[in-house]
Specification:
mainly alpha, elongated, 9 helices, 197 residues
Length: 197
């Protein structure tokens, strides 16, 4: 008999996220997912619809966590929040061990084989837009407080910070180490100081 009710879908989804996060979409087989989630192919089909639909659900859950967790506090304290965000990104004591695999959404953006699901690309865009908006919010806070130099283009600065995040996660993944990007965070401190009045 297929094991459909022997697991909690939310727990299984968390396990699937970790499998995709570690191995990537293309390299994660349905057999890998069965093993990671503790549920067979029939259960995956019944609750999620298949690998592509499961991956979409994983990205949705990951996206909510990023927007409500990592990005939510960035706008509050201006440049200080930005610096804290980047220092945390490269600190193994402050982020989950899975972050040594980089970022699930950023990894998906750079995968050579993309999921065959038209809903995936808008998720990528929402993630990048949420990150950019958070940085813009922090820069606006710094402008309002008189901390930020008035000659700076805030949109260009936010785009730079997004690019830096992409690079740091890629560095961490390639080195299999969260601390691999610490020097980047240290250099950013100098950059942020140059943005101050």
């Amino acid at each position: 008999m297929p094991r459909v009710k022997e697991y909690e879908p939310s727990d299984a989804l968390e396990k699937a996220i970790k499998a995709f996060w570690k191995n990537g979409y293309a390299a994660t087989t349905v057999r890998d997912l069965e093993k990671a989630m503790g549920v067979n192919r029939f259960g995956i089909q019944t609750f999620f619809g298949g690998k592509d639909e499961l991956f979409e659900a994983c990205l949705d859950k990951y996206l909510v966590g990023a927007c409500e967790g990592y990005f939510a506090d960035i706008p509050r304290n201006g440049l200080g929040s930005i610096q804290t965000f980047f220092e945390t990104l490269s600190d193994p004591d402050q982020v989950p061990s899975e972050c040594s695999f980089g970022c699930l959404l950023i990894n998906t953006l750079t995968e050579p084989i993309q999921p065959n699901n038209p809903q995936i690309r808008p998720q990528m865009r929402r993630f990048l837009d949420a990150m950019r908006d958070a940085f813009r919010g922090a820069l606006a806070t710094s402008t309002e407080s008189g901390e930020l130099r008035p000659d700076l283009n805030r949109n260009a600065c936010a785009d730079f910070l997004v690019t830096l995040v992409l690079g740091m996660h890629t560095t961490n993944r390639s080195a299999h180490s969260i601390s691999a990007s610490q020097t980047t965070a240290e250099v950013l401190r100098v950059v942020l100081d140059s943005w101050r009045k």
